[in-house]
Design brief:
This protein is α+β, with helices and mostly antiparallel strands. It is 44% helix and 18% strand. It starts with 5 loop residues before the first strand and ends in an 8-residue tail after the last strand.
Length: 147
């Protein structure tokens, strides 16, 4: 994707849509983990400056690991799936990567479906609404011709 859409945050900043989706996947994976972004003015250590994203354990109130802005969401999720086990077999790493990519793809599809369902609900609730069928034929919500 050439353009990465952004979503607004509560403090008025904008965050990548892919990382916002990743944050929800991390919460789905383990509710005690959060994906956090460290604003530039709060980056105290060298590691925080190089890697402003952190997977945070809310139970122990400590970081699990840091990630840079250049890491893809799939790479971050893969690292979370693998945990701290840096000496695993290749097949396990491939499986973890594939699972991470699949989880992100599934969440994107769920978001798209949810958006379509919200749009359909809005259409159903709109009084002055019509549907355009093939060859420009317009009908209302009861499929009665409008022309």
């Amino acid at each position: 994707m050439l353009f990465d859409p952004a979503v607004p945050t509560d403090d008025g900043r904008w965050v990548s849509e892919n990382f916002e989706r990743l944050a929800r996947i991390v919460q789905d994976y383990d509710p005690q983990f959060e994906l956090r972004w460290i604003p530039p003015e709060n980056r105290a250590t060298l590691e925080e400056r190089a890697k402003p994203y952190v997977i945070w354990d809310t139970v122990t109130n400590s970081p699990v690991f840091f990630a840079s802005e250049l890491d893809s969401p799939a790479d971050i999720l893969e690292k979370l799936f693998l945990g701290d086990n840096t000496k695993g077999d290749v097949l396990k790493k491939i499986d973890a990567h594939n699972a991470a990519v699949q989880a992100i793809k599934m969440k994107e599809e769920m978001d798209a479906r949810e958006e379509k369902m919200e749009y359909a609900a809005w259409l159903m609730g709109t009084e002055k609404n019509y549907i355009t069928l093939g060859k420009g034929r317009k009908v209302d919500d009861q499929l009665r011709p409008l022309e």
